[in-house]
Write a sequence for this structure.
């Protein structure tokens, strides 16, 4: 398997009320193209921060250091704690990403723009705009080509709560079509046709009616299916699902997991599945990475993590699950999607 994404020594700190809160402490890992990697850990362990950093969605209050490299794109992004003086038109508190391609000029990319603290609860309707702003080419010497992976086009992101990630005043079909129109350069009729196909693919019962439906007219599970359709509308290589089933009841949760597994397989996507639930993660992940207090304490094949965890914390997560219920940890079939 080739490497889609390499994270090197990624460190993120947030500034809150004048105090710096460490969220990630030197995390390094590779994500292989086509794999399903789960990131697990308890609340506050840094899972969402890792997902947001990869997607270029870190809040403006975040300092990022280390490197995120995309070898398949021949793109390297380096985070560093840049002093404010080198970031003249962006927030003084955020980090900087720069990118370089062998033999080409260095491009500088910035993340975490000013006022983006609210970007943790984006709306799909805004996603394309935010996406383009999320990783911004800033190098005056660069050729002009934006080499960074783009959220929406290269990276699909599914958030925990579809009620906040979907725009409440925009019909579901338009929210999906907008992503396709923006990133695939489709006309509106073609984008709507693609939206309808996607609604069929996520198995919504009446795609024509759902195209016109507003989010409040849909159930939680249906809204999450719409959000997933929007996330994959432009055919991203990487799908990030950040606690995408946590707001749903158990049966719907299993259906959404099965849906994600099927779509990832059909489209040949790489999946980053963020969850606090090791049992849920084990149902679809090839590998599991365990975060604790911002550190990567263990990463390995799912079977190895479940059967022979090396780190006491991974063992504790397993024991906690087994203490709560006895559902099989390796039921990879799931419910019908
Ligand atoms: N925008 C922010 N501003 C300040 N601190 C933040 C911000 N986002 C996260 N943090 C802090 O960073 C740490 C890691 O948070 P993060 O949300 O990444 O963890 P998590 O594992 O995803 O938790 P959860 O499962 O509860 O979402 C926590 O201490 C959290 O309070």
């Amino acid at each position: 398997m080739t490497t889609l994404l390499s994270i090197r020594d990624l460190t993120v700190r947030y500034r809150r009320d004048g105090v710096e809160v460490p969220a990630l402490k030197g995390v390094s890992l590779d994500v292989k193209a086509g794999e399903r990697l789960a990131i697990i850990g308890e609340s506050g362990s840094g899972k969402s921060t890792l997902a947001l950093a990869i997607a270029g969605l870190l809040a403006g209050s975040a300092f990022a250091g280390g490197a995120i490299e995309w070898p398949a794109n021949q793109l390297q992004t380096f985070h560093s704690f840049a002093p404010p003086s080198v970031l003249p038109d962006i927030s003084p508190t955020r980090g900087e990403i720069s990118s370089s391609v062998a033999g080409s000029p260095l491009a500088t990319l910035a993340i975490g723009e000013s006022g983006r603290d609210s970007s943790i609860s984006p709306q799909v309707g805004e996603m394309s705009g935010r996406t383009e702003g999320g990783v911004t080419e800033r190098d005056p010497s660069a050729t002009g080509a934006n080499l960074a992976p783009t959220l929406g086009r290269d990276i699909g992101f599914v958030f925990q709560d579809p009620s906040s990630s979907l725009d409440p005043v925009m019909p579901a079909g338009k929210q999906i079509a907008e992503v396709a129109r923006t990133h695939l350069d489709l006309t509106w009729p073609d984008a709507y046709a693609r939206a309808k196909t996607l609604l069929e693919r996520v198995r919504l019962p009446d795609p024509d009616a759902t195209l016109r439906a507003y989010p409040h007219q849909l159930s939680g599970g249906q809204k999450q299916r719409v959000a997933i359709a929007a996330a994959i509308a432009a055919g991203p290589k990487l799908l990030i699902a950040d606690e995408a089933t946590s707001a749903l009841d158990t049966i719907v949760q299993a259906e959404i997991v099965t849906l994600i597994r099927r779509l990832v397989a059909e489209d040949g996507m790489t999946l980053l599945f963020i969850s606090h639930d090791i049992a849920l993660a084990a149902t679809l992940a090839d590998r599991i990475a365990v975060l604790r207090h911002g550190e990567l304490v263990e990463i390995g094949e799912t079977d190895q993590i479940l059967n022979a965890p090396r780190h006491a914390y991974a063992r504790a997560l397993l024991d906690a699950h087994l203490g709560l219920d006895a559902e099989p940890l390796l039921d990879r079939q799931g419910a019908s999607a």
